[in-house]
Design a protein that fits this description.
1% of the residues lie in helices and 39% in strands. It is mostly beta strands.
């Protein structure tokens, strides 16, 4: 049954006449996709992706990139978690398509020492990649994901890790299993928007996109599904919470060969979706950073699948009305 797609409301308030701009000051970062893009200590970090490559660091005060430490192993398909001056990699995949395997432990990058270290082990029966990762009140939540690379094994699981005690807790399953997406937190609630159920073994690699938006309420410990689905179902998306909004950018799907350039915003107060200006270049397998009133994205793949890998960064100035 084809999912019901709710038409977008008009362009989000304050965005008329605005557009994304490509940042092209050399040197450019290493081309990569299925990677992480995160901000810590006032700098941007591009890390991971297919193969083992140096981490690329961007200083917004100078507009320059530089290459720094490589991760200790190939890590891809993960949502980075910034904790102070550290970036935690939880729920990553490693290895080659389509038989990637979950990384068995947490890996931590220290931005001040430019060094990686191995963190706690993830319970063997709950390991997966392509999952959402968020933090709330000092505890880390690993959301959904996939166990057997691109072959299959997508799960609806929600796990909570307490770094203070080193303990893991299984919580209620989400209404919809999904992978290749990113979770965000707004007002004590986890939002899952975008993603798919990847199943290369049944020849449904990209066709099983998940239009439903699931929400986990930390206070009640219960899941719900919003009335309105994401307007453009796609996976490999980048997501971020800004004020009361959940912004979902880019992605890939079976509906088109090019990566998606759509940027869509969910108002968590009303449940309504709005369109934001589209990316200059469609891309999937990257992330979003909000810094100094601007939204940034970088790297990713320009077509569904792995090629071409991009080395560009784009940004858009957000209106004050949207940020509030």
């Amino acid at each position: 049954m084809k999912p019901l797609i709710i038409p977008l409301v008009a362009l989000a308030s304050g965005f008329a006449g605005l557009q994304w701009n490509t940042e092209s000051v050399p040197p450019v970062p290493h081309p990569r996709h299925e990677a992480a893009f995160a901000a810590a200590d006032g700098r941007f970090y591009l890390m991971g992706g297919r193969r083992i490559q140096p981490t690329d660091c961007f200083d917004p005060s100078t507009g320059l990139w530089k290459s720094i430490a490589k991760p200790p192993l190939e890590i891809h398909h993960f949502q980075p978690l910034v904790r102070g001056h550290e970036i935690w990699v939880i729920g990553a995949l490693t290895g080659k398509f389509p038989n990637e395997t979950p990384v068995p432990e947490i890996h931590i990058y220290d931005t001040r020492t430019d060094a990686w270290r191995k963190g706690p082990v993830i319970p063997e029966d709950r390991r997966r990649g392509g999952a959402g990762v968020v933090e709330h009140e000092g505890k880390i939540y690993l959301v959904c994901g996939i166990q057997r690379g691109h072959m299959g094994g997508f799960v609806p699981w929600l796990d909570c890790f307490d770094p203070a005690t080193g303990t893991w807790q299984k919580l209620a399953d989400a209404p919809h299993a999904r992978d290749h997406f990113q979770s965000v937190i707004v007002d004590g609630k986890i939002y899952n928007a975008g993603g798919r159920r990847t199943s290369h073994e049944t020849k449904e690699l990209m066709s099983l996109t998940v239009p439903e938006v699931d929400v986990y309420d930390m206070a009640s410990g219960a899941w719900s599904t919003l009335k309105e689905p994401i307007p453009t179902p796609r996976a490999g998306t980048s997501s971020i919470a800004i004020g009361n909004s959940v912004v979902v950018a880019g992605g890939e799907s079976a509906t088109q060969p090019l990566a998606h350039n759509e940027v869509e915003s969910l108002d968590t107060r009303t449940g309504a979706w709005s369109a934001l200006p589209p990316l200059q270049r469609g891309r999937h397998g990257s992330g979003l950073i909000f810094h100094d009133g601007k939204l940034f994205t970088a790297s990713g793949s320009g077509r569904r699948g792995g090629q071409p890998e991009l080395d560009s960064m784009e940004s858009i100035k957000l209106p004050d009305s949207f940020i509030k």
